Amino acid sequence: MAEPRPIVTEGLTKIYRDFWGRQKVHALVGLDLGLERGEIFGLLGPNGSGKSTTIKLLLGLIFPTAGRARVLGLTPGTPAVNQRIGYLPEESYLHRFLTGSETVDFYGRLFGLDRRQRRRRTEELLDLVGLDARARARQLREYSKGMSRRIGLAQALVNDPELLLLDEPTSGLDPIGTREIKDLILRLKGQGKTILLSSHLLADVQDVCDRIGILDRGHLKKIGRVRDLLLVRDVFQLQARGVTPQARETILAAVRRAGADIVAAEHPTTTLEDLFLRVVGAEVKGRPAAQGPGAAPGAARAEPGYAGAKPGAAGGNQVSGSPAATDDHG
Amino acid sequence: MAKRPAHPQPSAPRERRRWTLSRLWAIALVTFRQGLRTRLWVLVPPAILVMILADLSSPRFDPVFEAVPATISMSLLVMAVLAFIVGTFFATYSLPAELESKVAQSVVTKPVGRAEIVGGKTLGMSLVVLLMVGCVGVAGYAYTLVRASSIQSLAGERLAEATPRAAYPADLNALQAVATNGPLETYRYYAATSGPEIDIDVGLEAAASPNVRWILGETGMRLVWSLANTPLREWVASAPGRLRLRLSVTPPPEEPKAPVQVLVALGSAGVELTRENRQPGGQGPVYQVTMSVPPSGELEIAVVGPNVRPPAGAINVPGAGDLVLYVVALQSGTLVGAGPGALTLVGPAGQEYAMAEAPAVASARQRQRLALAGRAKTPRELAVFRFDNVPGDVLGQGDTPVEAGFSLDAWSSAMVQAAAQVVFIRSDGQTKTVRFSPESHHSAILYLDREFWHGGPLVVQVECLTDDDFLWLVPDSVRLRLGGGPFAWNYAKAVLRVWLFGTVLSAIGVCCSTFLSWFVSILLTIVLVLVSLVRGFVLEATPLGGLARQLYDAANGWHPWAGWRSVVEHVVVPLPDLRSLIPAESVSMGQVMTLADLGEAFGWAALSVAVFVLVGAWILRHREVAR
Questions:
Q1: Which of A63, A166, B144, B275 could form a disulfide with B11, with the two C-beta atoms 3.0–4.6 Å apart?
Q2: pLDDT at residue B226 in the model
Q3: Is B479 a residue whose pLDDT tops 90?
């Protein structure tokens, strides 16, 4: 028997009501969604579009007004489902009077891990999210927002979940932290985990997600693979390194001869994130809070090829044209 | 258009997972840490200070006997108030704070049941209460020891001053005990296994008639024959019949030639005999007649039907109810008795019905209290209390004469300085007699030498020695008071009771906070606690009480197990009996709280907590954790 899809919703609707039962807000209207195993799915949308409502419905934190949701083939919110999922809330809502270690230990207890397992898992996870020994012994009330996100992620991973629901996972993080988290998300995907990610930081979603859905005022307006949705079909872009000015003119002339309109012919720019990471890259290597295994790949590698970097870094030439037929970009 | 399934899923998911102690304990530990790290413990030093200042500033009429009980009471009160504050304010705070700060979202998305959350919260609160009450308890114990050390020497000084002027040596016993052993003695009380039973010291002459049941004049005692299954009512329905009585009488020794007068009355079972209609000739029926008993002891009383006007000297049969015949002796010191066959019913046609059995003897009582009439001479009444529940070696062996205390509570008219005598009778018949002066609403402590009694069965016979006086007795009027073990252990048990009180209170607070905001939870919890403390009144005097009574009856009728009533009273209707969890005042007075009492309190507390946890879990499961 085939394993059920990690998340399935059918006509999922949530209407918030006031004290007297009068309808106040249509937060989500008839959401039909299905996630495949091992993919990263991004929920996009402006504030109030229904992203968090969707995640809360999938967690059983709120109850649907209509429709239904299945998580790992089961009813959301039940302990059987919660045993297999991890959840990172948008603000890392954790007990502020606990230390970092105590927090992970507490959530480990809730998953029934024994003392030895909890100790090992706490070490692993705090290393993974890059919290050093000093940070681990401090109460969460003293944590910066970035550290809170890290400890929030650690608690979400304590049970090695097969499905992760991440609400604004990079919110409040600096670019280095953002890259570390994105790296970590990709590594988790590499381990076969399914991830539902909600964010309004579009670049982050674009960097890590396989598919996205765009919500607006409770309605799912668009859904599909990131590549497909972002494809500009009537523009062709060629990037090359070591192009001389003569060769450049030749190429442009050839494009014109082919009857295409040249939209842009310029050196590409890198992303601000790349630039930032290149500038502070050396410091990142030595930064205590980023020395965990999860931090290393992104922090140490600030060059094209990383999933979050734009193709065509500084030094290359870029030509964009509008060819007659651009159905495939290879 | 949104696709809507035919069967929308229920609003709240069902939890099929069994709850585990590890998750419960995890939440309890976090709650406990929350209590510590939000610095709830800062309440402890002020509480200790309040305890000491309140104790020092309270006036004491008699420091030797009142200071230590008052100090213990004060410390327990401060602990109870502290438990109330923590239980009310912190217990109602924790869950709403987590819901408000959305921490609850992180918790409930883990494989943890709502019952585990509510139960863990309650357990964590309970640990906080235990820590804080324990700290104040330790301080209270230390402070009590300090107070006690000065009182022992004070008692010695008072004893030296009072001994030459003491009217009743027994009154000095308590002072002696404090001077010798200090004021921190604890006592274990043994209630009588039977008694009080009113008996008569009839004297030698009357004692020669062993089959005769005696009553004493002016004591309220009655000879009672049940005529329920006799043909008397049927016989006298058409024509008068007669009652033929053969009584044994002994006039008072003070007036040996005085005629003996008795009151003969017909009544209905369950209806108290009163003095109404004593004199014939009134408008209504006559049920009582006063007669002089001739030397032969033979009496005949005419009896007529219920609706017939009786001639002089005759009485009516009551129209309804089981017939009962009473005989009362009317003069002080008069003995009136009857044996088997003393009563014969005679019908209108001369038919006879002889009552083979001897009459019963009923003592005078007012509500639950038995009257023991005072009389200086024989014959006189005795109240007998039997103690068959004291272990044989309860006082142990040894040469040192240790005294065991006896607490005898007796009440007498405020106008009379009553005198009483107590005779302690061992199982081998050896006796020891002590006289004392009982006072209204005061208990007296009499002492037995350890050499006389080491334990085992004991009979305590109480006599009132003053004429025209009464001692009113209940089963607890005489109790054996024996040494109860270390004070510290007893105090610790009282602290545990306060902790139980705080735990149940926490459970109420947590339960309320599952569906209300913090502020409203506090208000509701306070209201529920106050109502719990006066639940006796609520159960008796309100419509809710009527419902409770119906539930009691339904519960008792549903199943013969008598414990249902107790369950309903303690937990189900309408709130837990919080007052029963607070240590009784007697603990402050040194009475040992038995392990059975403590266990019972634990049981009720656990049951109450379980009910509130389940209710809270149910509410939490059916509410949305996030908005």
A1: A63
A2: 92
A3: no
Cis peptide before B311 (omega within 30 of 0): no
Q: Which two tokens stand for residue B473?
A: 């007795």
Domain A7-230 CATH (choose: 3.20.20.70, 3.40.50.300, 3.90.230.10, 3.40.50.2000): 3.40.50.300
Structure tokens, A167? 């609400």
R_g of chain B computed on alpha carbons: 33
pLDDT at res. A119: 92
Q: Number of C-alpha atoms within 13 angstroms, CB side, residue B185?
A: 23
Instruction: Give the N- to C-terminal CA distance of chain A in Å, as an integer.
Output: 37
Residues of B in contact with A91 (CB under 8 A): 102
B587 has pLDDT over 90? no
- For the segment B175-185, what is each residue's pLDDT rounded down to a tens digit? 777 888 788 87
pTM exceeds 0.80, yes or no: no
CA atoms within 13 A on the CB side of B299: 28
Q: Kindly report whether the peptide bond that precedes residue B5 is cis, defined as omega within 30 degrees of 0.
A: no
At B580, the pLDDT band (50, 70, 90 cuts) reads confident
Q: Is-contact A7 A71, C-beta < 8 A?
A: yes
> What pLDDT, on the 0 to 100 scale, is given for residue A66?
92
Per DSSP, the residues of A37-48 read TT-EEEEE--TT
- For residue B383, list its beta bridge partners: B198, B462
Chain-chain contact of B17 with A11 (C-beta, under 8 angstroms): no
pLDDT at A326 exceeding the cut of 50: no
What structural domains and CATH numbers belong to chain B?
21-156+487-539+595-621 (no CATH), 187-198+367-483 (2.60.120.380), 222-362 (no CATH)
A-chain residue closest to B12, CA distance:
A63
- pLDDT bucket at A203, cuts 50 / 70 / 90: confident
Per-domain boundaries in chain A: 7-230
Residues of A in contact with B105 (CB under 8 A): 56, 59, 61, 87, 89, 93
> Pick from B432, B187, B507, B207: which is nearest to B335 by CA?
B207
Q: Provide the shortest C-alpha distance from residue A52 to chain B (in Å).
A: 10
Sequence-distant contacts of B256-261: CB under 8 A, at least 24 apart: B258/B331, B259/B292, B259/B293, B260/B292, B260/B293, B260/B329, B260/B331, B260/B334, B260/B336, B261/B290, B261/B291, B261/B292, B261/B293, B261/B329, B261/B330, B261/B331, B261/B334
For B477-625, list the strands marked E by DSSP: 478-483
The residue-averaged pLDDT of B562-583 equals 66
Residues B151-158: contacts with CB within 8 Å, 24+ apart? B151/B63, B151/B64, B151/B67, B151/B68, B151/B178, B151/B182, B151/B183, B152/B178, B152/B179, B152/B182, B152/B183, B154/B63, B154/B64, B155/B64, B155/B179, B155/B183, B158/B64
**B9 contacts on A by Cβ (under 8 Å):** 64, 68-69, 75
Q: B125-163 burial, b for 16+ CB within 10 Å, e for fewer?
A: bbbbbbbbbbbbbebbbebbeebbeebbeebbebbeeee
Residue of A56, A80, A106 with shortest CB distance to B626: A56
Q: CB B624 to CB A94 under 8 A?
A: no
Rounded CA-CA distance A316/B511 in Å is 66
Average pLDDT over every residue of B479-496: 86
Asked if B106 contacts A93 with a C-beta cutoff of 8 angstroms, the reply is: yes
Torsion angle, CA of B571/B121/B624/A59, rounded to 10 degrees? -130
Q: Could you tell me which residue, B294 or A270, shows the higher pLDDT?
A: B294
- 3-state SS assignment for residue B582: coil
pLDDT tens per residue across span B505-521: 999 999 999 988 888 98
Interface contact flag, A10 B625, Cβ < 8 Å: no
Give this complex's ipTM. 0.79
The pLDDT-based confidence of B396 (bands split at 50, 70, 90) is low
